[in-house]
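Sat 14:20. Reprocessing the chain from the morning session after the first attempt stalled halfway. Input below, unchanged.
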Amino acid sequence: MRTPAQHHGHQGHAHHAHPGPHDHHASSADTDWSALAVLLEREGELHTPAFTRAAQWLSDLLDGAPVGRVLDVGSGPGVVAGLLADAFPAAEVVAVDRSPALLERARTRSGGRLATRQADLPAEFGLLGTADLVWSSNAVHHLGDQQAALTALAGALRPGGLLAVAERGLPLRFLPRDIGLGRPGLQARLDAAHEDAFTAMRAELPGATAEVEDWPAMLAGAGLVPAGSRTFLVEWPAPLPAAAREHLHAQLDRRRAQVAGGLDAEDLATLDALLDRDAPTGVLNRPDAFYLTAVTVHTGRKAADAG
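Finished this time. Tokens:
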């Protein structure tokens, strides 16, 4: 359930339009799936410590209840689905995505541990089957009616099952406020431009419905009992390893294309300097570049006596 339109990260898959990974489900006949898969996998690997802690938390919330089937709805290349398979070794873990190419990557990287299901959401929610745990990361916000999407995901739960939705969290931080280029505070202006682009993206989605994005309340509106929200830190301090630098560069390049109309000439020039692969001021070479973000997971439980 991600789209390559914008990544407004982290990891979604229905109609993504973010500036991070979860961007792979737009109208994407021209999408370079191999390049997108590399971006999504690299981000997933950078975020693996946080998602591993999240998976353990979900296991604790289920408190020994049998988990026979897990759905990762909007799985992309299956990084998180693989972590869920580690956390629930007795379960069938199913990676669900719109892209056959990304599902093939999920099968390959998992060594066959994952089952896969191609589905174009929201039209094919009913084809997912039932599960004891449903996970969806940065995907629901790419569907026009977010409340209806949560209700559909909740409908896939078996009695006593858990729905976990990773949404929002904290935006990526990667440089000091004053970087010696342009006006200080570039990242705050990038965030503002990105929020405007994200709002415009949502307004254009089929069936777009305004919603107060109180995720626990929305889970309750889907008929679930909210089971808690937790935020997991992703932190790679300076100096960044090469893989993290390459991912940061790719993210920043995508962000520039997405928000160029919302920035002035000075900020665009600063971004171009940061994207210069050879310059000492570029993110590939700066000693002060870091990678700091956070993933927030909201959970809701289906009543054990629910039909």
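The chain has one domain: 33-301.
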